[in-house]
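Practice record 12: protein with S-adenosyl-L-homocysteine.
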Amino acid sequence: MINEAKIDILSLSLQELEKAIVDMGEAKFRAKQIYQWLTKGAWGAEMKNVPAHLQKKLDDVFEFRLPLVKKRLVSKIDGTIKYLFELIDGECIESVFMKYEHGNTLCISSQVGCRMGCKFCASTLLGRVRDLTPSEMLGQIISAQKDTGERISNVVMMGIGEPLDNYDNTIKFLHLVSSPDGLNIGLRHISLSTCGLVSGIEKLSNEGLPVTLSVSLHAYANDVRSEIMPINNKYPIEMLLDACNKYFEKTGRRISFEYTLINGKNDDTQGAVSLAKILKKHLHSTCHVNLIPLNEVKETRLETSKNINNFKNKLLSLGINATVRRRLGSDINASCGQLRRQAKEENK
Ligand code: SAH
């Protein structure tokens, strides 16, 4: 991983960097200059207003490494870019750059692999290797901005990994990414997606961070949810929805639910009625249901639903706000976790 003798500079807040710079006998204002360069992905001689002796000193004390672009797939249809990034220890993660009318969005990873075991997901097939550091989460955004030359205004934590299973690093990342002296991406422009770690949701509701919480629900009954998402054995649907309700009551932020439609598992129209019923029973606010056509992963043998519109219309008729997620980058189809898996296969 990162060279242990050196400090990972991108994981520092401005205040922490200021302290380190003053301890090095340098003027405090230098920290802000350096911080702004880091945000642009610049280091060493690229930091033009930082004197050469300080550039050298920084290099002796700190480690600055951005995720390297190992593979880059660009959609000819809509400009979506899928990145395979290589980290300092050779492990790979994925990020996806998407263009929307309201700005550019980057979907980032929070762990190398995942241990949540969701049956339809490619990211979890090989388990979890390690957590990402705050700087590796931030670095995905800096590298993507550098590569595209465009500003990223929205971030979704929906790539490889479970952010609430890497709780402390995720919280530190949220502070760093929203820092006005750093990337300055507002927390309201950030969505954090979880498979439903209730203890993490409860902790997050006390952090005072106005991110949008997306909860991967994917089923309207416990037997089906436990079958496709092992986390449901620990935190069944009722417990999860109660935690979502408390989250809303504490933060005033409405919850967004992700619901991947899988043929014959969770997509029958009657199921939409059950879904509407449990949402209304447990939540004292409106919510949004984001229906996702299953991205087929060959190892799972699960198929995408043929009943998407009926399911959506039933929810709408029952007063539940539901939309079907637009599929960006359909010509570079490599659903999350698949690029990393392919790269591992190729390196064998
Ligand atoms: N661990 C977090 C975030 C990563 S996954 C979570 O579980 O929410 C982001 C979203 O993509 C989740 O809703 C996840 O369930 C969904 N997903 C994973 N694999 C998928 C697939 N093959 N097709 C459609 N959605 C998938």
